[in-house]
């Protein structure tokens, strides 16, 4: 956890956003995430989770309010600041195919750091380390489209890790992963020394990985607290259309050693 007086990793203040067709997705989101925290962003379909994520590194902009990363404002009009923000905030999208577009896995993972000016052995080392981290070193020379969905997800995570971001934002990281890949990705996320914000409908995954959760509902933060406390609040869950999977017991999860 960060010291109370430290600049937070991420600070969202009064963020409101309507899509060009007039759909109001965010109604004034306020949230602060400290350095090194792992926070889950929970909420029902259509709550605004992806819309919020798209504001964190300036993919969407032009709404009301502010987003700050390490004290630096995310401003789509300020190209220099945006470049710095994109170095600091790595977003892993829900669909890995939004992230993989080069002829080989190696080139995809090298793309971001090469853009930052890395070359030669330093670039090779960065790529190899990122691929090793997600257990995908053996597919470096294959075209991404020849990999399975779960393998592409892991490569997409590697493309972001290769940038050595301060904040890792993941949209539904456990979806479509088999149980072993799901656990391996959890081990990777736990081993990283970065701030993690994870959008997920996978409640056990949130409980396992994120000590704190935010519930986004109807475009506002409806609750913010220790994950297991929020999950033990049946009324809160019902109000925001969140359901615990059959057999999942937050009290038992709280008692389990980590
Ligand atoms: N490109 C778009 N144009 C117009 N409205 C959109 C667009 N994308 C999303 N929306 C609307 O914005 C609102 C928030 O959507 P968003 O995708 O952020 O929700 P979400 O919490 O990520 O949902 P899910 O859990 O289903 O992924 C919804 O009402 C949705 O219909």
TrEMBL record:
The keyword Nucleus does not apply. InterPro entries: AAA+_ATPase, ABC_transporter-like_ATP-bd, ABC_transporter-like_CS, ABC_transpr_CbiO/EcfA_su, Co_trans_ATP-bd, ECF_ABC_transporter_ATP-bd, P-loop_NTPase. It comes from the Bacteria. GO terms for molecular function: ATP binding. It is a peripheral membrane protein. It holds the Pfam family ABC_tran. The keyword Transcription does not apply. Keywords: ATP-binding, Cell membrane, Membrane, Nucleotide-binding, Translocase, Transport. Gene3D superfamilies: P-loop containing nucleotide triphosphate hydrolases (3.40.50.300). It is found in: Cell membrane. Residues 10-243 form the ABC transporter domain. Probably part of an ABC transporter complex. Responsible for energy coupling to the transport system. This is ABC transporter ATP-binding protein.
């Amino acid at each position: 956890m960060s010291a109370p007086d430290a600049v937070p990793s991420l600070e969202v203040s009064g963020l409101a956003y309507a899509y060009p067709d007039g759909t109001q997705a965010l109604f004034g989101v306020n949230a602060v995430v400290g350095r090194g925290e792992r926070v889950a962003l929970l909420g029902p379909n259509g709550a605004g989770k992806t819309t919020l994520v798209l504001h964190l590194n300036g993919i969407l902009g032009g709404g009301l309010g502010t987003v700050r990363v390490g004290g630096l404002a995310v401003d789509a009009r300020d190209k220099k600041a945006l470049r710095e923000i994109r170095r600091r905030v790595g977003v892993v999208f829900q669909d890995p195919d939004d992230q993989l577009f080069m002829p080989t896995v190696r080139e995809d993972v090298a793309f971001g750091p090469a853009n930052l000016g890395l070359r030669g052995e330093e670039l090779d080392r960065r790529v190899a380390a990122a691929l090793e981290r997600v257990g995908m070193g053996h597919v470096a020379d294959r075209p991404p489209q020849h990999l399975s969905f779960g393998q592409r997800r892991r490569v997409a995570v590697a493309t972001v890790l290769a940038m050595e971001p301060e904040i890792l934002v993941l949209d539904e990281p456990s979806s479509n992963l088999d149980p072993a890949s799901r656990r391996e990705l959890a081990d990777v996320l736990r081993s990283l020394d970065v701030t993690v914000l994870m959008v997920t409908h996978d409640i056990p995954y949130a409980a396992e990985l994120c000590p704190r959760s935010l519930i986004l509902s109807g475009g506002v933060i409806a609750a913010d607290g220790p994950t297991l406390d929020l999950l033990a609040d049946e009324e809160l869950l019902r109000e925001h259309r969140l359901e615990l999977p059959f057999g999942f017991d937050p009290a038992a999860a709280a008692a389990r050693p980590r």
